[in-house]
Specification:
By secondary structure, the chain is mainly alpha-helical. Helix content is 68%, strand content 0%. The protein has one domain (7-66).
Length: 68
């Protein structure tokens, strides 16, 4: 599916997604969790590959939740 990611990349991205979802109190398998994964994948593709940065950089879902 993600041919451009090696196993280390996938593990790092997966841990970052799980951490973000825990912080947002959502399930990674939920639609919101899929939105988190999509946003973090986009960041990864744009060159943000550091796990800590992926787990902490602001994403659209957080901005929406702050205004609800």
């Amino acid at each position: 599916m993600f041919d451009f990611l090696d196993s280390d990349d996938m593990e790092r991205l997966s841990r970052a997604i799980d951490a973000r979802c825990r912080g947002l109190k959502i399930s990674p398998e939920s639609i919101d969790g899929q939105m988190v994964a999509s946003q973090l994948l986009s960041l990864f593709q744009s060159g943000v590959t550091d796990e800590a940065e992926l787990a902490s950089r602001p994403i659209a879902l957080e901005i929406i939740q702050r205004h609800e």
